[in-house]
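Q: I have 284 residues here and want to know how they pack in 3D. Can you give me a structure?
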Amino acid sequence: MYKQPLAQMAQVVEYIENNLCTTSISLGTIASAAHYSKYYLHRAFHDAFGITIHEYLRRRRLTLAAELLADTQMPLLQVALRCGYQSQQAFGAAFKAYYKKTPACYRAQGLFYRLQPRLMAFKGALQTGQAPIRLATPDDVPAWMALLHLVEDGYPCLNVEQHLRALKENIRKQQAFLLHEGGTALGAAALERETGHILFLGVHPRYRRHGIQERLIQTLRQNCHGKALSIITFRAHDRADPGYRKEIESLHFQAREPLVAFGYPAQRFVLPCAESWKSENGRK
């Protein structure tokens, strides 16, 4: 009912990106610029991208702030004002809620990562998503990294260079798997075979409702020698989580101990070995 042509939603995203630093930008001003009612635009945007305009605007502003903190010596108050906040206090509270560090501590860390990549209105016909999942090869690195940039909001403190080095090693060890179709990586996963730990699990945003995650998990099960699978994701009620914890839970992973991964508060999830999983799901 609320589906809009991709070009129109792309124009809305473009308007938001061009006005991130404008304190007066709101659902009302965006709707007026796009010639929609606020109610209509709210529903259409959420249907298209799975996130509200308000939340997208906040996450993109904080991402811009993080980039300024990491790459410049701009005073904190100036960063706050530049990113649409009316006070340093309001900015500091919002930044810590999402990045888990004060702006000053984040700057001292010196590592930038995107809380929210820019949304894209993907064009072209949908792929079937039914291509076979296969081992990744060195020739697949560009497609894998392109997918990584689309799902990096699920990996706080992501260091792209470290991920690239690890990917090349995982390809060498034959523990990186890819679903590649139509010139695009639709899904990818990397598994530490010795422990059953999932190092990476990503599905192209346009294909998250196509069962690709389930197929990737099935492939990993077949390559973990009967071990339980484990993965690390956001803790409950983390405002920075755009929905990845819920997706992990939907795959029947069970919450285990909280931990800190790459300096970020996270939680480990475990999927029991295949026999236990089949038994549990057979009773449902």
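Q: Anything worth noting?
A: The two ends are 34 Å apart (CA to CA). The mean pLDDT is 91.
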